Amino acid sequence: MSQGSPLLTLSAIDKSFDIHRVLNSVSFELARGEVHALLGENGAGKSTLMNILIGVYSADAGKLELEGKPLKIGKPSDSARQGIGMVHQHFRLVDRLTLTENLLLAADDHPQLKSRAAAREALLNTAKEIGFTLNPDCQVGELSVAEKQRAEICKVLALGARILILDEPTAVLTDSEASSMLAAIRRMAESGRSIILITHKLREVVGFSHRVTIMRRGETVAAGLDTSDLSIEKISSLMMGSSSTSLSPDGIDSKKAPSNVQEHGPDLLAISHLNARRDDGAPALTDVSLRVRAGEILGLAGVGGNGQHELTELLSGIRSASSGSVMIDGADALGLSPRQRRKLGLRVIPADRMASALVSDLSIAANLSLTSVVSGRFGRLWLNRRRMQREAQASIEQHEIAGARPSGRMGLLSGGNAQKVLLAREIDSGMKLLLAHSPTRGLDIRASALVHQRLREAAAKGAACLLVSEDVEEIMALSDRICVISAGKIMGELPGDASAADIGRLILGHE
Amino acid sequence: MSSFRLTLERRQQVSTLRSTTTYILGLLLGLGFGLLVLLSAGAPAATLLDDLVIQVFFSAMGLAQTLTLAVPLILVGLAATSAMRLRFWNVGIEGQLWLGAIGATLVALSDFGSESLRLPTMLLASAIAGAAWIAVPLILKLRAGVNELVVTLLLSNVAYLLLQHLLFGAWKDPVNSFPVSPRFDENEQLASLGFGNLHSGIYVALGITLLMTILVQKSRTGFYVDVIGRNRTTALATGIPVTATITLMILLSGALAGLAGGLIVIGVEHRLTQTIGINTTFSGIVIAFIARFNPLAVLPTAIVLAGIYNAGGTLKVFYGIPDAIVVLIQGMVLLTLLMVQFFSSYRVSLLRQSAQQPGQPST
Q: Which of A273, A346, B61, B149 has an alpha carbon within 20 to 30 A of A462's alpha carbon?
C-alpha cells in the first residue's frame, strides 16, 4: 500500500516525562488509504505517540510531516483542523444530548456545520458512506456501546477527519459487532481515509490491516512491515521481544538464574478450582488451580485484564471468591482476614503500590513500619514512635533508598525508591509466601534489576514466590515454572526456560 | 502577535513556612472580610476593637462568658475532628448534641440511679445517646455503603423534631409558658466556678482534649486512623482493623457531640430548651478545619470562636446586628482558609507566549 509519498510521517520522536524517557527516536509512517496497525504491550509508548499526534502532548524532539509539509500541532484543535481525529476507548460524547447536538458541540472550527440541519445532514451522509445506520436525533445515553462507538466515529469523520486513530475499537464489542466494525474500517480505508488501528488482538491485525508498526519500551522495533508477510507468531515474538537476556548497567544481573524447580516439599500456596467474579459480576477467574513450593518462583504470564488483578486481590484477602480453595502454608486461607494471612507468612507487592500498599501522604517511617504496627511490634496500645524513626533510618540505609528521610513524605519518592520501601517492608523474617504483581511496572532498568534480585533472594531464602506479570521478559528472567492466564483461565504450564514464542502462543490462545 | 496564558502547576512539596504563612494569611483575610461585613451591617467602627477583643477576652465577665460558650464548642470541634480524620462527614453533630441533651435530661427528670452518682450518670447518658444517634448512619455506611452525609444530616432534623415533641408534650414545664423542661435539681447541676456562668464542665472539655490529643498522636489507633483516612485500600490490604477503628472513632464523634449537649443543659441551662444546638454542626466543622484536625489546636480555635459568638451577643443587644452575622463570619474564615490552601498547593504563573508557533517544542 505504500505507493507514492506517505501521507503522514513522524520521525525520530523523543518524549520524556521527568526523567523517564517514554519515546526514544520513534518513527511512524502512514500512507493514504491504508489500515496501519500500531502494536505493542502496555506501556510500550503507543498512547504517548498518538497523543503527540493529536496535540495532547508535544514532542521533545523529532519531526511531524503531513503530505511532505511540516505539521505544527500545539493543541488538540490544531490536529482536528489538519484532519486528524481520534476515537478513544472512552467516547467523547455527552449522554444527555442527541447525536446531532454532540456534533454541533464539537464543531467550533467548522462554520459549515453550525446549523442543526447541516450537522444532521453531515452525520447521515457520513454514516451512509461507510455503511452505518444511525439515528442522529437519538439521545446518546440511550445507545448501546457499539452504537455509541459508531456514533463517535461518524462524528469524528463528519468533522473532516481523513486520518482516523482508533484506540482498541473492538475491546468493548461482541464478536459479531467486532467483525462488522472491522469491515467498516476497511471500507473507510477504501474511501481514501487512512486508519491507525491500535489493538491487542493479533487476529484483527493479520486479517484487517495493510501494514504493521510494532513498538516496545518506547522504541520502534518494526516499522511499516507488510502484514501479508507476517504471521501471528512472528508478530507476537516481535512484540514480546525474543531474547530473555538483558544486562543492566552497574553490573546488576537481570539474567536468568539456574532453575530452582522444587520437586519436593510442601506447597506453601495451593490454589484449587478457584472461581471469582469481577466488580461488574462477569466471571474474572474460572477454575484456577496453581501451586507454589518453598524456594521456587512461579511466573504467571498474560495480557493485563485477564483476571490477574482479581487473583492478587483475592489472595491478599481484599476480594472474596465464589468457590474453590486457597491454602497458605497448609492452612485454609479463604475465610481469613488480610491480617491473619500475613500471620501465615503472606507478603504482597501489588501492581499499584501507591494505591494499595503504601500511603503517599504519610511519612516514609510510617510506611516502612505499617505492618509492624499492625503486628504490634511497636507496642499494643501506645506506639514507640522514636523506635519507628530509628528503625526506619536503619532500613533506609540498609536498602539504600536514595533521597529518603524517615520523616519525609512517601509520595515524593520516585517509583523505584517507593518500591524499595515496599520491598524493605514486605521481605522480612516472617515471609513464607511472596505475591508480586508487576513489581517492576514503571521502574527504570536499574530499579527493575534490583527488584528482580530481591525476588530471587527471597526464593533462595526459602520463600515461595508467585510472580504475576504482563511483561514476558520479566516472567522469563525470573520464573522456575511458568503458567499462562487468559480470560481468567489457566491456559497451561511451561518450564522456566520456555521461549517467548511458546508463552505468546498460550497467551494468544493458540495451543 | 503574543498572548498570555495562565498556567497552574501543582507544587511537589509545600514547605512548612509556605503553608503556615498562607494559613495565617487566610485567617486574617477571613477576619478582615468579617469585619467589613460587620461594619456594613451597622456596627460602629470606633468601638469594634473593644466589642470584639477587649470585652470578650480581657474583661473578667466577658472572658467567663467566652469560656462558658467555649465548652460545648471544644467538644463539637473534637467530634468533627474525630470523624473528619477518617474522611467521615459527620454533618449531624447537631442531632447528636440534641440526643445528648435529651439523654441527660431523661436521667435528671426520671431521677435515675443513686443521687450521689447522678451527675456522672447524666454525663454518661448524654455521651451514650449521642453515640447511639450516630450508630445509625455508621451501620448504614459500613453495611450498605449508604452515604453518611445524607443520613447524619437528616437525622439532625429527626432529633430536633423529637426534642420538640418532648418539650411541647411530656417534658413541658407546667409552670413555664415557654417550651422548656422543668428545672434540674441542685445535685443535677455542674458546680459553678464562681466566675460568671463558668462551670466545672470546662475541666471535662480540657481533659477530653488532652485525651484526644494522646489518642491521635501517641496511640496505635491514632496511627490506624491516619492510614485509613488517607488510603483505605492500603489499610485493608495491610491488615489494619478498618471496621473496628472506624466504629470506635465515629462512635466517639457522636459521644463527644452528645456530651456537648449534656454539658450545656447540665452546666448552663439547667433544663432542656430548644435553642442550644442550633448551628453546632457548622461550628464543629469550621473549628476542626481551622485547627487542621489537630485536637490540641481545637482548644484555642474553639475559644476564639466562642469569643466571636460572645461579641455577636453584644452586637445584637446594642446595635441590633443579627446572630446570622456570626455564622457568616465563620463561613468566611472557612472559605478564605480553603481558598488560600489552593495557592499553597498550586503555583499560578502567567506565561507570555507567541501565538504563531504554539506547537514548537521548547528546545
A: A273
